[in-house]
């Protein structure tokens, strides 16, 4: 479980996050949702330590993260897998080298073991026989899947996904969502997904927190999100004309 | 001042939480290829012409019956070994390698590749920058040796083909009163220049924020700052090691 306590973050004169607290349970796909610019990614980056909040605590299964020294942080980070918005694959490495990268640096596995592991995870994300391709030779959806493969190739306990559906068509988005959901349950990891995609919210939102203007306004799941009674959240969900029409039919 | 402080902290961070030797060895070899081997052609061309021009212009300025022809080669040698080979090559390298390092790291930053390394628990400064600096410090003195030799050969070609002096006079000129310390000085300078170019360019690239436009700005800034640092270091080293 990941616990976030009273996180506040300011960039210059602009306060991005206001006193955010939440608990993200293991084996669940936890979603942080909200409109663009509400601080979702900043919150995620604060949780993994890429951004240092001015105030607040982050606990990984009870272990303090933000206050820990570099060595302890590195240790916790080795249990983390992260899928970035653009995939963040290393351009100069092949798909296989990208996925194998955490194993090369963080494990003492033999070459054969590493290749077996890489092939396993690539096959798990549906990318068999793409080992020798370069990131520039694969589609956006495939890049995301390689990103997921790289995130889970090591034995991780925590999976973070920053807008995994951005730039993808609805069908591919659905496949990525399903993959994240399945992996969360298969590996029993604590997953946190940042998204503003309502299909993801309804499809895999086992625990959802809604941010607006840097504040947590609502917490729940996909079953009760439509009955939240939270005006701001309803505006967010039913933002498009199509959704507004749909709302009238509900 | 803040930037200078950040630069030294950046350098300090290279030496904490390093990865295993094997990973660095492969990276250093790759960087040696990119920084050294891939710069060879440019260094060869600029050095050869630099030597040729130096010889022709020295001859132009030493037109006197009291000055023997071989002196042209002697003066050209001193200029090439002491200054032109290490410094002009450094400026050329700052343009080619410096911009490449800064834009490479800048692109990695804006595409979140550096964040990906950090999330994996890897010290990204050490992993990405240390191999570049090591490779530059290893390869640049070699480039300067090759550049210096080719510049002397360029001078030979220009001098003999245009009848400024005979081959015997040129060879005599580049050998007479030769002080091996000048080569040592050139190599010390080249190692210092390599460190400055690679570290400043890495610093500029690593802390790029924004998008493609900012990567271009970082790249330009890396070249400008590297050139200034090289010229400043050139003067300081001359004062320290020659006076």
TrEMBL record, chain A:
One of its GO terms (molecular function) is ATP hydrolysis activity. The keyword NAD does not apply. It comes from the Bacteria. SMART domains: AAA. Pfam families: ABC_tran (PF00005). Residues 2-238 form the ABC transporter domain. SUPFAM superfamilies: P-loop containing nucleoside triphosphate hydrolases (SSF52540). PROSITE patterns: ABC_TRANSPORTER_1 (PS00211), ABC_TRANSPORTER_2 (PS50893). The keyword Membrane does not apply. Gene3D superfamilies: P-loop containing nucleotide triphosphate hydrolases. Keywords: ATP-binding, Nucleotide-binding, Transport. PANTHER family: INTERMEMBRANE PHOSPHOLIPID TRANSPORT SYSTEM ATP-BINDING PROTEIN MLAF, PROTEIN TRIGALACTOSYLDIACYLGLYCEROL 3, CHLOROPLASTIC. This is ATP-binding cassette domain-containing protein. It comes from Marivirga atlantica.
From TrEMBL, chain B:
GO terms for molecular function: phospholipid transporter activity. Keywords: Membrane, Transmembrane, Transmembrane helix. This is ABC transporter permease. Coiled coil: none annotated. It holds the Pfam family MlaE. The chain crosses the membrane at residues 133-158, 178-197. Signal peptide: none annotated. InterPro entries: Permease_MalE. GO terms for cellular component: ATP-binding cassette (ABC) transporter complex.
């Amino acid at each position: 479980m990941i616990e976030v306590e009273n996180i506040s973050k300011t960039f210059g004169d602009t306060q991005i996050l206001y006193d955010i607290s939440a608990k993200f349970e293991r084996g669940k796909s936890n979603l942080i949702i909200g409109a663009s610019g509400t601080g979702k990614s900043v919150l995620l980056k604060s949780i993994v330590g890429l951004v240092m909040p001015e105030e607040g605590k982050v606990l990984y299964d009870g272990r303090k993260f933000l206050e820990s020294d570099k060595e302890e942080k590195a240790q916790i980070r080795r249990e983390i897998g992260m899928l970035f918005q653009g995939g963040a694959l290393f351009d100069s490495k092949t798909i296989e080298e990208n996925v194998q990268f955490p194993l090369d640096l963080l494990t003492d596995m033999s070459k054969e073991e590493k290749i077996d592991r890489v092939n396993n995870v690539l096959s798990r994300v549906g990318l068999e026989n793409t080992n020798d391709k370069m990131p520039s030779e694969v589609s956006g959806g495939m890049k995301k899947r390689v990103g997921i493969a790289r995130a889970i190739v090591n034995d991780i306990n925590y999976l973070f996904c920053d807008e995994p559906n951005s730039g993808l068509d609805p069908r591919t988005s659905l496949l990525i969502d399903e993959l994240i959901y399945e992996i969360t349950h298969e590996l029993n990891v604590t997953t946190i997904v940042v998204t503003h995609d309502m299909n993801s919210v309804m499809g895999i939102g086992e625990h959802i927190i809604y941010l607006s203007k840097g504040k947590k306004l609502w917490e729940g799941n996909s079953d009760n999100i439509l009955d939240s009674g939270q005006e701001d959240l309803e505006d967010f969900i039913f933002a498009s004309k199509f959704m507004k029409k749909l709302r009238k039919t509900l | 001042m803040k930037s200078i402080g950040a630069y030294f902290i950046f350098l300090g961070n290279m030496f904490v939480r390093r990865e295993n030797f094997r990973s660095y060895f492969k990276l250093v070899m790759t960087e040696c290829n990119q920084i050294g081997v891939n710069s060879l052609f440019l260094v060869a061309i600029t050095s050869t012409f630099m030597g040729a021009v130096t010889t022709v212009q020295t001859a132009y300025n030493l037109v006197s019956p009291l000055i023997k022809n071989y002196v042209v080669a002697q003066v050209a040698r001193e200029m090439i070994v002491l200054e032109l080979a290490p410094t002009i090559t450094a400026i050329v390298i700052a343009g080619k390698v410096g911009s490449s390092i800064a834009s490479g790291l800048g692109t990695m930053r804006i595409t979140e590749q550096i964040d990906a390394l950090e999330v994996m628990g890897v010290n990204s400064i050490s992993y990405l920058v240390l191999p570049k600096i090591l490779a530059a410090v290893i390869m640049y003195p070699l480039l300067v040796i090759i550049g210096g030799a080719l510049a002397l050969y360029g001078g030979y070609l220009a001098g003999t083909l245009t009848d400024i002096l005979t081959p015997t006079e040129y060879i005599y000129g580049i050998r007479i009163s030769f002080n091996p310390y000048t080569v040592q000085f050139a190599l010390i300078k080249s190692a210092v220049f390599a460190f400055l170019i690679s570290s400043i360019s890495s610093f500029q690239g690593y802390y790029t924020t924004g998008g493609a436009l900012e990567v271009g700005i970082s790249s330009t800034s890396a070249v400008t700052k590297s050139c200034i640092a090289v010229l400043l270091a050139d003067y300081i080293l001359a004062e320290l090691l020659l006076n």
